[in-house]
Amino acid sequence: MDRKIKIFIAGDSTAATKLPDEKPETGWGERIGEFFTSDIEICNFAINGRSSKSFINEGILQKISELIKADDFLFIEFGHNDKKENEELYTDPFTTYKAYLTEYIKVARNAGAHPVLLTSIHRRNFDENGIIKDTHGDYLVAVRDLAAELSVPLIDMGEKSKRLFEQIGIEKTKEIFLWVKPGENLNHPDGIQDNTHFLEKGAKEIARLVVEGIKENHIESLIGCMK
């Protein structure tokens, strides 16, 4: 191989690399490289608190466009912040959300690279029967629709995370989400119960689901570089 294939990640805090003062919070983008050989380079551009809109407006997608090359990949996962009632973040699922996501797809394809769409990961939000309650709604539907419309590989992290969390169960999922007891961590001396973000163990589980999706989509150039 003449050059390493690069996987660029565009996304929010669920994927982002965390600073030392944010630990033990961990994004899946920090762990996915463990599933590949040194022939793959992970370029994690995901940033906390961004939506598909703000990521573009802050110039982050532009930075990716300047670096991405033919045969690279752009993994695109948003939605957590797109529904927030904030002018800088909000997108409408079936209009502006799809329009912004289309810009990411264009950046990849214009460079001869490969876009991959990911639906949003579910939160740890169970009903009394241990079934995950969907907080993303039409944002999941919109990504699935767009993937079909533009013939983009889809990794349905919404469906995959729902199955995983329900399999693990209400109590055991506290071991993968950012649940920290008081006194256990210097960054969270009073403890934290965060049902959106992950501990290192959880981030690796989510990364494993992404890799599962790569295999299901028969992305051979990546499968060939897996450990």
Topology:
Blueprint: E1 5-11, H1 28-31, E2 40-44, H2 52-57, H3 60-67, E3 73-77, H4 93-110, E4 114-118, H5 138-150, E5 154-155, H6 157-168, E6 177-180, E7 192-198, H7 200-216, H8 220-223
Parallel strand pairs: 1-2, 1-3, 3-4, 4-5
Antiparallel strand pairs: 6-7
Helix pairs in contact: 4-5
Any idea how many domains?
Answer: 1
Superfamily at the CATH H level? SGNH hydrolase
Q: How would the global form be characterised?
A: globular
**Helical/strand content category:** alpha/beta
Rg computed from alpha carbons, rounded to a whole number of angstroms? 17 Å
The portion of residues assigned to helices is: 25-40%
The first-level CATH class name: Alpha Beta
Put simply, the count of helices is 8
First-to-last CA distance:
16 Å
Order of helices and strands: EHEHHEHEHEHEEHH
- CATH architectural designation: 3-Layer(aba) Sandwich
List how many beta strands DSSP finds. Answer: 7
CATH topology: Rossmann fold
As residue ranges, the low-confidence spans are none
Largest sheet: 5 strands, parallel
Strand order across the largest sheet = 2-1-3-4-5
Strand content: 15-25%
Mean pLDDT: 97
Pfam family, one: Lipase_GDSL
Organism: Clostridium diolis
Protein name: Rhamnogalacturonan acetylesterase RhgT
InterPro entries: GDSL (IPR001087), RhgT-like (IPR037459), SGNH_hydro_sf (IPR036514)
